[in-house]
């Protein structure tokens, strides 16, 4: 019978340790800084309105060749064939 008592105690200690670890994770989650959805949305909208995207000319208008980071380089040739 002493082995049963030892096994039960070990199981109880294991369950307690798991609960304590879970509780610690929950406390860490609770301490994590949060941002309201309305603030995050406003920040995203502000970023999209102020950051020019050269791949969407219908919104920002045509891009000058000197401003276009995705345009061809001034080198002229992009590849060579031999």
UniProtKB/TrEMBL annotation:
The keyword Lipoprotein appears for this protein: yes
GO cellular component terms, semicolon-separated: heterotrimeric G-protein complex
G protein gamma domain location: 12-82
Keywords, comma-separated and alphabetical: Lipoprotein, Membrane, Methylation, Palmitate, Prenylation, Transducer
MF terms (GO), sorted A to Z: G-protein beta-subunit binding
Chain spans, region Disordered: 61-82
Gene3D superfamilies, per the entry: Transducin (heterotrimeric G protein), gamma chain
Keyword Membrane: yes
Subcellular location(s) per record: Membrane
Topology versus the membrane: Peripheral membrane protein
Entries under Pfam families matching the protein: G-gamma (PF00631)
Biological processes per GO annotation: G protein-coupled receptor signaling pathway; pheromone-dependent signal transduction involved in conjugation with cellular fusion
Transmembrane region(s): none
Assembly and oligomerization: G proteins are composed of 3 units, alpha, beta and gamma.
Protein family (similarity comment): Belongs to the G protein gamma family.
Name of the protein in its database record: Guanine nucleotide-binding protein subunit gamma
Natural source organism: Lentinula raphanica
